[in-house]
Design goal:
The protein has 259 residues and is an alpha/beta fold. The protein has one domain: Rossmann fold (3-Layer(aba) Sandwich). It is 35% helix and 23% strand. Strands 3-2-1-4-5-9-8 form a seven-stranded mixed sheet. Strands 6-7 form a two-stranded antiparallel ribbon. Helix 3 links the parallel strand 1 and strand 2. Helix 2 packs parallel to helix 10. It starts with 11 loop residues before the first helix and ends with a strand.
Length: 259
């Protein structure tokens, strides 16, 4: 798997992590994480596609032991710099398709904000097998994935008469997503597809992330409207129990337990 995100490592926090929308969606993810993980201090966590280490810092502060990995050497370097004060975090370059080469097992495997959307369908199927093998008994696989339909996106682009963009997530073979100056092939998966390929797992939680809070490319609409974004966060949190909305949101959160 190619390291597509080296070029944005230094700017990623500014362009997503620290944006109004980025923080809003992460707030919802953390509420769901806390619900599913339980006692953080006894957990060994493998984070895949760790990006700049924002989530590794959060989990380390909770007391978990974290191995933060990414295929991008530049992202891993940013993570190392960000987590150097935490002895319970190790950072390492790892291709998600070579998960089995780690040769160790974890209590939790976690991938946030579309890490699996970089994988082709067959790669996702193999990843689910590798993740199952890489978890301790009763371990949890927690994923935040972009589904194949996002109502916010469809309404936004339809209002601009850009109907190809409005339903781009449904294209067979993935769609090209603009990430700074690069076009990156991105694949979108429904919650049903993930469940169908989760043999050996029991579903624990499915919830929408970003049903009311918009996709990150609409951040300019909200960065000077703190009251509006807080209302949308509150609405999103009130809708977490409506798991059917997961397939219509910017992302969905799914927690699967190894059985």
């Amino acid at each position: 798997m190619e390291a597509e995100f080296d070029h944005i490592a230094k700017e990623y926090d500014a362009t997503f992590t620290e944006t109004t929308v980025g923080r809003a969606q992460r707030t919802v993810v953390y509420d769901l994480l806390n619900e599913c993980v339980g006692d953080w201090e006894v957990q060994s966590i493998l984070e895949l596609n760790c990006g700049t280490g924002e989530d590794a810092v959060y989990m380390a502060k909770k007391g978990a032991r974290v191995l933060a990995t990414d295929i991008s050497t530049q992202m891993v370097q940013v993570t190392k710099n960000k987590t150097q004060e935490f002895p319970n975090v190790e950072s390492r370059v790892l291709d998600i398709n070579l998960l089995e080469k780690l040769g160790q097992k974890f209590d939790v495997i976690f991938s946030n904000f579309g890490g699996l959307n970089c994988l082709k369908e067959e790669e996702v199927k193999q990843f689910m097998i590798n993740a199952h093998n890489g978890l301790n008994e009763g371990g949890k696989l927690i994923l935040v994935i972009m589904p194949s339909l996002c109502l916010w996106e469809s309404f936004y682009f339809s209002s601009k008469l850009k109907f190809g963009e409005a339903f781009r997530r449904r294209k067979k073979g993935g769609a090209l997503a603009q990430v700074e100056e690069k076009l990156i092939r991105t694949y979108y998966y429904s919650p049903q597809f993930i469940k169908q390929n989760s043999k050996g797992f029991h579903p624990v939680k499915l919830a929408p992330v970003g049903f009311c809070v918009p996709p990150s490319y609409l951040d300019n609409w909200f960065k000077n409207k703190p009251r509006s974004i807080q209302k949308l966060i509150k609405l999103d949190k009130s809708l977490l129990k409506f798991n059917k909305l997961a397939a219509l949101s910017d992302h969905f959160f799914i927690c699967l337990e190894k059985v």
